[in-house]
Amino acid sequence: MRSMLGVIDGGVCAGLCGAGTLMAYGVRGRSATLFAPSIYRGPAFRRSIALTFDDGPSEATPTLLEVLSNQGISATFFQCGANVRRLPEIARQVVGGGHEVGNHSDTHPKFYFRRPAFIQQELTRAQSTIADTIGVSPRLYRAPFGIRWPGMAAAQRKLDLLGVMWTVIGRDWKLDAAAIVHRVFRRARNGAIVCLHDGRELQPRPAVEPTIDAVRRLIPMLKAEGYRFETVSQMICPTN
Ligand SMILES: [Zn+2]
To answer: Which residues are the active-site residues?
Structure first.
């Protein structure tokens, strides 16, 4: 009897753990599409890389734009609505520099256990702030902290937003420039979407110098490997 209970308990436990693992993967897994449709890489036949920058615009963004412009490359910026309202001129500079702008929610919340109406409101408010400020409606969305949650798919559908995760995450909120360079360069591959940051959630004057320094060094290294740089939309466009 005891051993039978053990088997049953074991079975229940395995079932629950399995569900828990699936749940965790659906919420945070970069390739998961359980709660919201998203991509995490471009085509493997393309010798190109999409640099993406989250949590801007910030006071540091113009310096990054200068680095990208000096290297003649375009990138994708996932902006938060609240930061766009704080720094509208810098948000416009991003699009003026030939870069793509995506939606990164309005206030960068963690969407765990939030109601669908809240998720909808966060995405919609960011979408209209960005569209009104820069004159272009984003087609791409990156979930804050990479967290997907029930209700997000519907919100994305309503706004016609494709979710974009990443192939390589720079961990640039904690690493120094040399470590970011090493990490991204080692993981670079055809069609890679690289996630970096030109802001830090809603913080004014965030310390993102290590990211900018790393980008300045990385671009020539990747160009020497034969990579070209594209925005996410350019990279995934089948006729491009
Ligand atoms: Zn973010």
So the answer is: 54, 197
